[in-house]
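Hey everyone, long-time lurker, first post.

I ran two proteins through the pipeline my lab uses and got sequence/structure pairs for each. Pasting them in order. The first:
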Amino acid sequence: MIEGIRHSKAEKRIFKHNDPKDLDRQLSELGREVPKIIAFESVYSMDGDIAPIAAICDVADKHHALTYLDEVHAVGMYGPRGGGLAEREGLMHGISIIEGTLAKAFGVVGGYITGSAALCDFIRSFGSGFIFTTSLPPHVAAGALTAVRHLKTSNVERELQRDRVAKVRTRLDKLGIPYMPNPSHIVPVMVGDAAKCKWISDMLLDDYGVYVQPINYPTVPRKTERLRITPSPLHTDADIDHLINALSELWSRCALARAVA
């Protein structure tokens, strides 16, 4: 998204995170005749917070702006048919363009946008990044289609993931390991030290066979370094126990603070 904005060479403004009032204020400074597009995410992958989609759509309607919603961390996992947060909230009609991925929940590679036929045709015709991109291999497209069709009718995986996420949080609470609370499936375990964050990640993989990605500056501000845990529907109780016990041992070895119950 950021690279697209940069390459467009259009004027850009950055509104305060998840703040429709600031968005409204900034758009009010522009004339109604000025073309505008509001780009934002539904689930933010670093903190796991969720955008106020309805309020942002209301601001967009007020100022005749297009909306571009990144649902990369939500498609497949939210909504009755896995369409994402906009589907879950009944707001698909208010979004001009939705960006998704065929990786993550759908399990293959690639990405897509959705929108009106005219808008998609415009992007297909004028988007240089698309024009010079190789098409997906047929077996990847077939795998993606199968995954999308399955998750449009099955809620089993979504329900299992919510259960797994809740179990991870409960275990972390019992051990006093701090994490950032949020309404999504993302569990950011807060380390607050870049070197220790990387070391814990390395030790988890080398000594315990567990891969958890360390998130350090500049992806997040300094002193908010974290391990980003995203439990899947297929993680068993034993998998979660193994992760939490390993994390607890390494937490003690790093002399990191624990929350007091």
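...and the second, right after it:
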Amino acid sequence: MTFEIAGLNMNVWCLPSHVGMAENLQPFAVGDMKGGDASICDIECGVAVPVAEGLPVLTNAFDGKTLSLWLEPGRCVLSLRFDGDDKAHWMCASRDWRVVKTDCTADTESGRKALEDFIMISFIYSSASCGTVLIHASSVAVGAEGVVFTGPSGIGKSTHSRLWLRHVEGSRLLNDDQPALRVMPGGEVFVCGTPWSGKTSCYRNERARLKAVFRMRQAGCNRAVRLGGVEAFCALIDNTSLIRSDRGSFAQISGTLAEIAGKVPVYDFHNRPEAAAAAMSYGLFSSV
């Protein structure tokens, strides 16, 4: 099955039933596998993956699971284990992330969940060479134009998106957790819906021209400060999914973020959860 995300194709060789099981992937399924240069990544499922040796360069526990990463000559290896599950799921990828293999199948609940995580990880790093990044943010579109509200969990991103949906005519939620930002070949920057939207079921295979980025900060009053240069870049990279120890993908993602920071206004947005804050951010969005 081929999935199109942010205008880029990924081939996933898995059980056809998986697409029907995964609500978030359905809007991005575009038919039979295209292969060749049409795909940024080919993922083969249900195959044996050699277990990595030695200590991982990264181990991260989050959301009831533990992810470990090994960077070996010619390949990256990842293991994913869910809390309370003795079985680890494995994935290996070429260093350019174009060829991925995993032992996951969709015939078990843990295998299906692990496969969805591996698809997301594969998209992040295989799309990096195409000017694309996945950012932790909530995104709203108004017509053909979009905005992202970024920052750590609990800072008020989703709350501010809901304020836009309530008070900005014609607005719609594009993604509520992990939208993609893509610098197109012509140089324009777009925000794109993805299959990964956190706890909100919002899976739109759409894109909008990115007009502004707001780094959310809780405060007693509403105030926006435009960031420039390094500050704008840091506001983006602090909320972007990336492996800092993988120099190749880190350089690509950093370059994309620097380009976005130079083209799209980035604001530090001190705000209260109220309609007046939405009016302020929308005013800045409209003035670009």
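Reply from user beta_strand_b:
Welcome! Quick read of the second one: The chain has a mean pLDDT of 92. The chain has six helices and 18 strands.
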